[in-house]
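#struct-help
A.M.: can someone run this one for me? Single chain, 154 residues.
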Amino acid sequence: MRRCRRWPPTADPMMTQARVVWLAALVFTALGCTANNTAGPSGADTLFVRFGLDYDTDGHLDFLAPTTRPSLIDSVRHELLLPADQRRGHFHGWIRPGRQGENLGWPWAAEPSTWVLAELSYELCDGLPSRVEDRHEMCPWASYVKDTTWGRPQ
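D.P.: on it. Structure tokens below:
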């Protein structure tokens, strides 16, 4: 009498675990290879807000802050309806080290989910974008919404 083979063939449990680990590693590697190399948000659904400083006439202190939050986007749009000298909302949020080109020429980037447009902030976080080091809270009082763009500016 002939015996039929069972399908799928029974395998050693250790071999099955090895196959699962190998397959998971393959999938995660493939996903990692397709990821964008630029840190932070960069999609077309991200609004990048360019902040200027009142006393900076040539724009060398401008910086970017990305957001996808609808309420913040509405606040930014409201600021842009006002003449530049009447815009009172300034940047207040957390920053972190960033990659080259992520935030114009700065070595730091704004954390998208932490910043707001503030009318008042405490003095400890006031300062210049050029004096930023490491991860901390920043709120330059002289900053104002200068311009916006959808998707990462070039």
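A.M.: thanks! The helical segments are 13-34, 70-81.
D.P.: also worth noting: Residues 7 and 16 are 15 Å apart (CA to CA).
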